[in-house]
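Deliverable D5.2: sample structural annotation.
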Amino acid sequence: MRSIGVIFNTNHELHDYMLKGFPSPESPVRLQRIMQHFRDNKVLENNNCKVLNPVSASVQDVLRVHTMDYFSFVQLCSLKGGGWLGNDTYLCEGSLEVLLQAVGSVLEAGKAVATGEHDHAFALIRPPGHHAYADHYSGFCVFNNAAVLARYLQQVRSYSKIAIVNIDAHASDGTQDIFNADPSVLCISVHQDPSHFYPFKGFIREIGFMPAVGYTLNMEMPPEAGNSEYFIFFEEIGLKVIEQFCPDIVILECGFDSYYKEGLSKLNLTMDGYYGIVSSISSKWRTIVLLEGGYHDDIGLLADMVLQALSGNRYTKDEVDQMHLLASRQSSCRRIFESKLNELKTLMSSYWEI
C-alpha cells in the first residue's frame, strides 16, 4: 500500500462568514464534516496515512505568485477586522493567519512528496484557491494554493515541470491566468460549461499564450455530465497530454462540487467517478491533492474515497445506480459532450498527439 501524507490547517475556523454575518457556503462546516467522517470511520488508519503538522507559510512563499500590493491589501484588511470583499469572497480578523497556514500546509504536503517521505499527499485546507489571481481574490479564494505550491516545487525543490489538473465544477481561472504563458506548468481544467456558470471563463478556445500556447486545456462539460464523460475525456485527451508533457509531479485541484448531490452545480460525478480520476493520475505520477470546492453532506465520504484511490486500497462500494442516473438526464448531454470533446481534440492536435 502506498504511503499518504495528510494535512489540515487547524486554525481554519477563524475564517468563518458567521463572524462577519455574510452568507456563504464556504464555511468551517466543510472541514468539520471531513474530519468527523475520518474519525468515525478510521479513514486515516485504513489508508496508511500519516498526519503532517501544519506550519504557516512565509510572506516570501506567498510572493512567489502574488504581488506585494495584493498581499498588503489582504494583510491590512484582515488586521482591520475583515469584511465583504465582493465576488463571493470575505475576510475576517483572523483570516490572514488561516490563509498563511493553508498555504503552509500545502507546502508541507509538497515537501513530504518531494523528499520521498510519502508517495502522495492530500492537503485538506480552506479557503480554496483556484479562483485567486496574482493580484486579486475571487470566488471564495484569496491565495492560490496550487500556484504557490507549483512555484515552491520549482524554485525550492528544483522540479522543472508541474502539471495542475482541476476537477472542481468551476473552471480554474485563477491558476490558468497565472501560468498562461509558462510552458513549464501544464494546466488542465475539466469543469461545467462556463457559458452561464461561474467564473464565466475556462472555454475550450482558451489555450494559453506564447510561448505556452497549448499548455492550457479547458474541457467544458455539459450539465449532467458524469462518470462516463469524465473517463472518456481523461482516456482520450487528459492522460495522453499529461504523459507527453511528462511532469515531475501532478497537483490535483480536487473540488467535490462536481458530485451529483451538489446544489451549486449540475454535474453527476459519483464516488466511482472520483475514485477513477484520482486513481488514474496517482497510479502514474506522484500526486498532491488539494481540497477546493464542495458544499454538500457527502464531502467526508468523497475525501475518504480520494484517500482510497491514492493508497490503492478500495473498500467502499458506490451505491449509485448508474443506469438510473443516466436515464434521468437529458438525452442531449452525451451529444453535446462529444461535440465539445471533438472541438478540443481538433484544437489541441496542433500541440499534442491525441
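Annotation notes: The chain has one domain: 4-348. The longest helix spans residues 95-114.
The annotation will be released with the project's public dataset once the embargo ends.
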